[in-house]
Design a protein that fits this description.
The protein is α+β, with helices and mostly antiparallel strands. It is 37% helix and 25% strand. The chain is globular, with a radius of gyration of 19 Å.
Length: 341
C-alpha cells in the first residue's frame, strides 16, 4: 500500500515500574540448569537481553494502553478521534474487545469507532496500515492506535512450569526459553490526514506477506493472569528469514526505494541472533539501526513503535530521515512500514 495523505502526528510509550534481569531469571530456575548442565548466563549471551519489565499482578492491558493514550492526548489536541484500534497481543478478556474498555476509560465520543486488531507482534504496524488506508479513502481523518503488553504472567508461569517438572528435558527447556525474553510496555500513537498536522511524519508505504503453514512454530494462549507460549525458535527464525527476504524485495519494488536511501532500519526486537540474521539477509547490516531489546526485551506488538519512539528520544532521528520498520510475527507474517520523519 502506498500512502499519500497519512501522517504520524505523535507517539508516546510507557514503561513498567518493575524490571528483572536475565541473571535473576536464571537464578529462579537454577536447579533445572544444574540438573541439565546448562551454564548460567546463557539467556543473555544468546539473546543480548539484559533485562525486561513487567507490570504489577492484576494490571490489565487496557490500563497500560489507557495510560499511554492519556499521556499522548495531554499534548495532542484534536477536534475529534474517528477511530480507536487496540493492537495488543495481551487482552482484558475474549469479549468484548479490549478497545471497548479503552474507549470507555478515555471517554471517547460515541461516533468514534473502536475495535481490536490482532496479528501477534505485527498488530501495531498492521493497525497503522489499516487506519492509513481509511484515511486515504476519506472514511476518517484521525485514528488513535494503542497497545498494552504485560509479560509478567508469562514470565512467572514459565518459571513455575520449569521448576515443577523434575523430568523436564533440555529440548523442552529450549522450547520455553523464548518466554523468558518477553518484556512489557505500552504505546499510543495518532495518525491523521497530513493536512491536520503542522509538522507531519509521513507514512509512505507498507506491505504485509503471510505464510500460514508455519503457524505451529510459535503458539500462545491463556488469559491476562495466566499465559503460556511454546516456540521452535530455530525453525521460526529460518522460516522468518525466508519470508522476510521475499517481502523486502516486494517492498523495495513497491516503494521504488533503494537500500542506500534508507536512513534507519529498525528490526523487531527479538534478540541479537535474530537481528544479525535478518539484517544480513536483507543486506542492511551497514544501515544504521537502533536497539531496545537489551533493556526492554521483546515487547511484542509494542517493540517496533517503542524502538521508533526511543530512537526519537535519543535525538538521533532527524527531520526527513527515512525509517523502515521491519517486523516478523508468529503465524508466519511479515510487515514492513516506511515513515519519513
Amino acid at each position: 500500500m502506498n500512502f499519500n495523505h497519512t501522517a504520524l502526528l505523535d507517539i508516546e510509550c510507557v514503561l513498567p515500574p518493575d524490571f528483572i534481569s536475565s541473571e535473576e531469571l536464571e537464578e529462579k530456575i537454577a536447579s533445572t540448569y544444574q540438573r541439565l548442565k546448562v551454564s548460567v548466563g546463557r539467556l543473555e549471551l544468546f539473546t543480548g537481553i539484559k533485562r525486561r519489565g513487567h507490570w504489577p499482578v492484576g494490571t490489565k492491558p487496557s490500563e497500560i494502553a489507557t495510560t499511554a493514550a492519556k499521556k499522548l492526548l495531554s499534548r495532542v489536541h484534536l477536534p475529534s478521534i474517528d477511530l480507536l484500534i487496540n493492537a495488543s497481543v495481551c487482552r482484558d478478556q475474549l469479549e468484548p474487545s479490549t478497545a471497548m474498555n479503552i474507549h470507555g476509560n478515555l471517554g471517547l465520543d460515541v461516533k468514534c469507532m473502536a475495535f481490536d486488531l490482532s496479528n501477534a507482534c505485527l498488530s501495531v504496524i498492521n493497525a497503522i496500515s489499516v487506519a492509513g488506508q481509511m484515511i486515504e479513502a476519506g472514511a476518517i481523518k484521525t485514528a488513535l492506535i494503542v497497545s498494552g503488553e504485560n509479560s509478567g504472567p508469562l514470565l512467572f508461569q514459565t518459571i513455575q512450569q520449569v521448576n515443577q517438572n523434575p523430568h523436564l528435558t533440555k529440548e523442552q527447556l529450549k522450547g520455553l526459553m523464548a518466554n523468558l525474553t518477553i518484556g512489557s510496555a505500552g504505546v499510543a500513537l495518532v495518525l491523521t490526514h497530513k493536512d491536520l498536522a503542522s509538522t507531519p511524519h509521513l507514512v509512505k508505504n507498507s506491505i504485509t506477506m503471510t505464510e500460514g503453514r508455519h503457524a505451529h512454530l510459535c503458539q500462545g494462549d491463556g488469559t491476562p493472569d495466566s499465559l503460556n507460549m511454546k516456540t521452535d525458535s530455530e525453525a521460526l527464525l529460518h522460516a522468518g528469514c525466508e519470508l522476510a527476504a521475499i517481502t523486502f524485495q516486494n517492498f523495495l519494488h513497491q516503494a521504488r526505494l533503494e537500500r542506500r536511501n534508507i536512513d534507519w532500519a529498525l528490526g523487531h526486537q527479538v534478540g541479537v541472533a535474530h537481528e544479525e540474521k535478518i539484517m544480513n539477509i536483507l543486506e542492511l547490516k551497514n544501515t544504521p539501526t537502533h536497539r531496545t531489546y537489551p533493556q526492554f526485551g521483546n515487547t511484542g506488538s509494542v517493540a517496533l513503535p517503542l524502538t521508533l519512539w526511543d530512537l526519537n528520544m535519543s535525538g538521533r532521528l532527524q527531520k526527513g530521515h527515512r525509517c523502515c520498520l521491519l517486523g516478523i510475527g508468529s503465524g508466519l507474517s511479515c510487515s514492513f512500514l516506511e515513515i519519513i520523519w
